[in-house]
Amino acid sequence: MKSVFLYYSLAYGSVVLAVGFAARRRMKGLEDFFLASRTLSGTLVSLSLTAGWFGATSVLVSTDEALQTGVSAAWLIGLPAVATVLLLLALVKPLRRLSILTLPDLAELRYGRAVRHVVCALLVWYMALLAASQMVALGHFLRAFLGWPYIGCLALGTAVVLVYSLAGGLRSVVATDIIQCVLLAAGMLAVALFLAARNSPAASVRAAAGAGLSGYLDLFRNFGENGLIFLSFVLAWTISPIALQRIQAARSDGAARRGLAATALSLSGLYALVVLVGIMSFPFYGGRALSAPLVSTLISDGLGPVLGGLLFTAVLAAVLSTLDTALSAGALALARDVWEQLRPAAGDRGARRGQVSTVIMALLAFAVASRFQNILKTIGLASEIMAEGFFIPGMAMILSEKRRPLAGLLGFGLGGGFAVLSFLSASGLVSLPLPVWPRSVPYGLALGAAGFAAGALLERNKRDTMPGGI
């Protein structure tokens, strides 16, 4: 059986590599490599964002949560993703009117060069953790079906993504995302139809009630923790460089808006399928201690070689499409906000720096994935950095043109610093009495807001006490 999945893996890898190489064009600078020369249509923005957002947590963790808790699993990834895309619709014009490539570019305009460096460090770390969460999923998933060591599976999947990402930059990433978006949608729809032919949601609810699970259709079950997860993800993703990269790469404001609107619709449908698959699997797998995620169990035990193979490749598509997106956005921060600041490059050297930065991001994420092997924990720690360190000062620098260097420094420093300490505590590198994610989010967010407010107040008082009131 393992040889069958090896063939599926090789076939899938060959397809995405071929598509990635076919999409490459001559690249002269960072905009060519990371923004596809700002030529993406609304359709391409939508397909790429959908594939980039629907990753390992969406397909592996969310289906497990739906099996165990019912419709409240939608708070895990689905509802935050849709809410974020809808919020971003209102930010298209403010973001595209800015002549910037990255968030650190904007941070320097609003808060000064020192804050730029803080923002860049937090961004690179966030993207490394996000990429690592997909690598963790990839390693565990392939190990279960190929029988290879975890590290070997990490290396295989990362190598495929690196090859096509280096070949054509964002153009290749978007081209492969089209294939991956179609595959993951087909896989989830086929499995939902397969389960619907053998069961019904009503039968699942009765089975859950018989097993002592109440509130299987209660969306607000366990809302205390689910609400914090929702808050953490929405705040993080609204200010995420992934969204900014796609919005900036669109050919026009209208294309960006159409792409985001279509993304909201497609994500709504995909996450509804995720929850439905989890719920309708309850009569077969509910109440059992599964040795692998529900999706992996369905592939190996319940679907047969054809449908099982389709779902297998759909999972690979979900993971790789989010991994390539994270590596691309993180590499843009490295190339633009570290390398280009030290020594600007012209011509083809900009694209080559983009390629080298992509390799560096992959190695950094690989190192994190070697230590953290919990998908949800890793992506949660990643979102904590953006939610606590970025959201307050980040939204202020997008929506306001005022220069507030001290406010930005204190906002990013206190919120981001708390997120870094939370990561160190969660990793076991230091022992600190800090609440764990997602319960840590309100504390870090409050620190970031307090730092930004204090800095703004001090700057205003300083201006008021200057001669002439300026």
Describe the structure.
The protein has 470 residues and is an all-alpha fold. It has one domain (2-372): Sodium/glucose cotransporter (Up-down Bundle). It is built from 21 helices and no strands. The relative contact order is 0.18.
CATH homologous superfamily caption: Sodium/glucose cotransporter
Low-confidence stretches: none
Terminus-to-terminus distance: 75 Å
Q: What is the CATH architecture term?
A: Up-down Bundle
Number of helices: 21
Query: What name does the CATH topology carry?
Result: Sodium/glucose cotransporter
Give the gist of this structure.
The protein is mainly alpha-helical. Helices cover 79% and strands 0% of the residues.
Offer a few descriptive terms.
single chain; Sodium/glucose cotransporter; mainly alpha; globular; 0% strand; 470 residues
